[in-house]
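Q: Structure tokens for this one, please.
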Amino acid sequence: MTDGHFATSTPGREISTFIRENGYAIVDDAADTAVMDRLASEAAPFVEASAHGRDIYDGRHTRRTGALVARCPAARELVMHPIVRAVVDDFLGHSTTYQLHLTQLITIEPGETKQKPHRDQMAFDFFSFPADYHVQCNTMWALTDFTAANGATHIAPGTSGMADAEAEQIEEIQATMRRGSVLFYDGKVLHGGGANTSDRPRQGVNITYAVGWVRQEENQYLACPPDVARSLDDDLLKMIGYQQGAFALGYVGDQIDPLAALRGSREKVKTVENFRQSNDSFQTFVDDLDR
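A: Here is the predicted structure, written as tokens:
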């Protein structure tokens, strides 16, 4: 490992630990060329139809293309990639479940300026989560090479637990990486897209994950409608959100399990007594029920 770069053989926990300490990590060459080629081909017409950003923050020379699970079968492989699952399993392991938060192909075109540094967890109504509680884990897959010239993501390492005034003094790095590599970064670290001074677009596939009890940034149930969802395997559907977010979140109608409801079954969600949870306060609650 050098400067936050890891090999694909690195254990997920080791990468997760580095993210907790530094706010980011890069796994080089995680996806093969064939997957990235398919994704680029599948996404191309949707990218072309995507409007440019509405303001400087969104990027007036940037296109954001979502609904990738429904539109691009190759994106499903990235969502469920074993390396990503290993890292996110550990990084968000403090929560009962985690879920897909958004899928977005970000195309930064020539002439785009540097994005204002920000923290992604501001999406949750700017709620001030505890410094040691991570609500999300993000990935950015390089669909093209990420270079200093074409707008590689800027990261301010170690700023996840800092106040804004202090964090803004930290020197940024750029997450340069080869096509098929993946950048991990947490929801607290200051970061932003880079300026594209090259003559070609920079494309990154932003796939992020959040704990199961928060609202998803991208509405997965509309972005991936039921007729498409029913064609997907159960593991991917659970990642999309067809699972209990915690013991009392996410059921349908008469306490029906969401995955069962999609499949036409009437199986109920787990009750508080049989829902498995490692959280100490939850276990205390369960123990109290038996007294």
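A few notes: Residues 250-291 form one domain. The mean pLDDT is 94.
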